[in-house]
Write a structure and sequence with these properties.
It is built from 9 helices and 5 strands; from the N terminus they run αααββααβαββααα. It has 167 residues and is of the alpha+beta class. Strand 1 and strand 2 form a beta hairpin. The longest helix is centred in the last third of the chain and has 15 residues. It starts with a helix and ends with a helix.
């Protein structure tokens, strides 16, 4: 059965050359190398990853993200706080949507640049991993838009995530 950290690992490596190592991913994602290994093993069992080629099955991951993620890993709303922008408050949706300043969604982080309604990140280390990797931040923000967004935001996030994953 998939766990949230499995999705984090897949979002990091989808569309990337298979030159990564478990140690490299573990440092970047804030988890142990064995956790990364187990995540990819569960992803393979779920049909989202091919271990032999070290490739994410993009279409399957996209389908799961669009249709299943918000049910499998619903986002828990938390109190307003300072944090790192996510969902429609972060790139790329931030540039496409006009939203009220008070309608900001963030991952809780005391050193964050924005104040808004907090949501629990997909995985506890996701905000720090996103801070280290802007591409991963975009992908995680799009996934959060799929998890908590309204119909229009989800539609835009699905299209943007498809573009993120590449051909």
């Amino acid at each position: 059965m998939l766990k949230p950290q499995d999705v984090l690992v897949l979002l990091r490596i989808v569309g990337e050359p298979a030159h990564w190592s478990f140690q490299e991913l573990s440092r970047e994602l804030g988890m142990s190398a064995s956790e990364v290994h187990q995540a990819l093993k569960r992803a393979e069992e779920s049909g989202l990853y091919e271990a032999k080629s070290r490739k994410v099955k993009k279409r399957a991951l996209l389908e799961f993200a669009i249709h299943g993620l918000r049910y499998a890993f619903p986002a828990k709303r938390l109190a307003r706080c300072r944090g790192i922008p996510t969902a429609h408050s972060a790139a790329p949706l931030r540039e496409q949507l006009v939203s009220d300043q008070d309608d900001c969604l963030v991952w809780p982080e005391p050193t964050g640049e924005q104040f808004g309604d907090a949501i629990e990140p997909l995985y506890r280390s996701a905000p720090m991993a996103a801070f280290r990797n802007p591409k991963l931040h975009r992908r995680l923000a799009l996934v959060d838009a799929l998890r908590v967004g309204r119909a229009r935001e989800r539609e835009m996030a699905a299209k943007a995530l498809n573009e993120e994953f590449g051909p």
